Amino acid sequence: MSTNTELIRTSYAAFQRGDIDAALSVFHPDVTWTHPNGMADYGLGGTKKGLDEVRAFMARARTVFSELRQEPHEFLESGDRVVVLGVLHMRGARSGVAGAVRMVHSWHLADGKVTHFEDLHDTHDVRRIVEPSGPQHRPRLDAPDRIIDAGLGFWTAKVLQAAVELGLFTELAAAGPLEAEQLRARLGLHGRGLRDFLDALVSLGLLERDDGRYRNLPPADTFLDASKTDSYIGGLLEVASQQWYDPWGRLHEALRTGEPQDNIPEGTDGPFETLYADPERTRRFQRAMTGGSTGSIAAIIDKIPWSRYRTVADIGCAEGALISRVLRRHEHLTGTGFDLAAVAPYFEETASETGVGDRMSFQPGDFFTDPLPQADVIVLGHTLHDWDLDTKRMLLRKAYEALPEGGRVVVYEALIDDERRRNTFALLMSLHMLVESPSGFDYTGADCLGWMAEAGFRDCYVEHLAGPESMVVGVK
């Protein structure tokens, strides 16, 4: 295998790991970097000169594509030139649509460094991914039935929440297909409305009914069986029913006054201190946070180049789901969970149950008054949106201070799309902050990129994780 081809292969491999420094190490400091002009209106076309402009190009690309992966298939070398044929896999950050586009990359090298790079691909195909058309990508309330469905959406929500609170899916997972009468007896129900309740869950695609016997369909079996702790999201639905349903009924009042509707008495401690004063509410909330993070945690396990690092700290760690799952996958890592002291028993319980207690530890603290734990990677998951803008910026500054040179901060939330048109869930989550917190709000990926740059981070990018959630990553 020739030296030039090997050199180019190492650059592709580094890009795949997310190791931008290693990927760019093969480039000459004054490299010329050219892309098709068809994406110039996105800041991605034309020619860039020098590594600083290349890094800026990459940061910009991460705001346009939530996923971007190069898959080289064939390397053709002639003298100081290497041509690579392959496929670009991408997902539009605003659209959420994924697709693949053929690519041709031309590399020119001199003295072991890349002096010229050109990317050739059909930008029409790229724009179809970035800018999909059609209502399937942006649901509209454009007919009376759709408006009614949205207005009565709490009907569906309460059916699902009741099923979780009654333990229906967990019972079916353990006992197998059961008739309605068997479920009535096992769950202690009255019987009136039971068939309607069960058949509504059939119509929602969560249960199946065969010869009068009900069983879980795969989504319910995977995500709503409480015994499957790594994938269970029912804790979030329990908290939604028991703690969030009533405050959301006063959304109109929150919009009139700007005040949260969570029934925390005026003059008492903040929302988390009040919440954690009740052990049962604390346990429910911990489970809810784990349930709401399940998809993102599964993605983060694979999307961060963990082999480069040795330590990770999760700020606002709840019961330690992220730390425990990352450590189980990456056995060289050790992790620290940082949260209020009341969370410690639930974190220790997770550490014991998951078998990585020797590599994960809990550090009690208050990030308003205490420094963050030092680590190679600091994660802020579903944390920034709880607070006002000054606190968001303060937390990113503290993360910067706690990281070593080359360390990463990872922020993950349901990010509002930059045009504030498509990610309905993220916009509703920001309204949830209005209802539940004194000053919290959700934000766009572009907002967070700006705050990270202010804190001193470089090579910042946005990448989709799962569902409505994405992460924003910055390097010190």
Automatic annotation (TrEMBL):
Keywords (A to Z) from UniProt: Methyltransferase, S-adenosyl-L-methionine, Transferase
Keyword Transferase set for record: yes
A Pfam family: Dimerisation
Record's keyword annotation contains S-adenosyl-L-methionine: yes
Residues of the O-methyltransferase dimerisation domain: 152-224
Annotated ranges, domain O-methyltransferase C-terminal: 248-458
InterPro entries for this protein: COMT-like (IPR016461), COMT_C (IPR001077), COMT_dimerisation (IPR012967), NTF2-like_dom_sf (IPR032710), SAM-dependent_MTases_sf (IPR029063), SnoaL-like (IPR037401), WH-like_DNA-bd_sf (IPR036388), WH_DNA-bd_sf (IPR036390)
Domain SnoaL-like: 9-116
CDD domains with a match to the protein in the record: AdoMet_MTases
Entry-linked Gene3D superfamilies: 3.10.450.50, Vaccinia Virus protein VP39, Winged helix-like DNA-binding domain superfamily/Winged helix DNA-binding domain
Protein name, as recorded: Methyltransferase
